[in-house]
From TrEMBL:
Protein family (similarity comment): Belongs to the thioredoxin family. DsbE subfamily.
Designated name of the protein: DsbE family thiol:disulfide interchange protein
Keyword Disulfide bond among record annotations: yes
SUPFAM superfamilies reported for this sequence: Thioredoxin-like
Keyword Nucleotide-binding listed: no
Thioredoxin domain sequence ranges: 34-174
Keyword set, alphabetical order: Cytochrome c-type biogenesis, Disulfide bond, Redox-active center
Species, as recorded: Devosia salina
Intracellular or extracellular location(s): Cell envelope
Amino acid sequence: MRYVLFALPLILLVALVSVFAFSIDRDASLVRSVLIDKPVPQFTLQAVEGLGVPGFDTAALQGEPTLVNVFASWCIPCRDEHPLLEALKTRTGVRLYGINHSDAPENARAFLAELGNPYDAVGADRDRRVSIDWGVYGVPETFLVDADGTIVYKHVGPLTPEAIETEVLPALEKLGG
């Protein structure tokens, strides 16, 4: 019995190290959302005050494929990702909607004035309620919604040229976008 008590911490340590060893090469952007293949949550987002593009709601995400990008002016990776979103919009013409996450309207306006506004609509999610319903736990995150309003793809973190070529564009092509 005495040896078991002595060995127990060593066994737990080996188990913990094993879990970390198997997870070390895991790609953090491959987080499978529980919302994949489910309808987008019910929501309504008002426009960012003074931005000049409308807000949007659940119904707006029907009819054709739409990329929904969750961003914030205070998010450094969002700044890095932004030129890629603009290039993707220009290249594909996909509808691109933004959820402005936990941001003051003046900061969101300044961010988009500085970097350009590729969004067809931007909803203000100041209290993060809609982001929570979408399963967002950090910004940026990008979702692809099909014409029926079903979430078919989620990318966690900033989009990269590689992710656009190997994930986003093939997913868009499957949808006829």
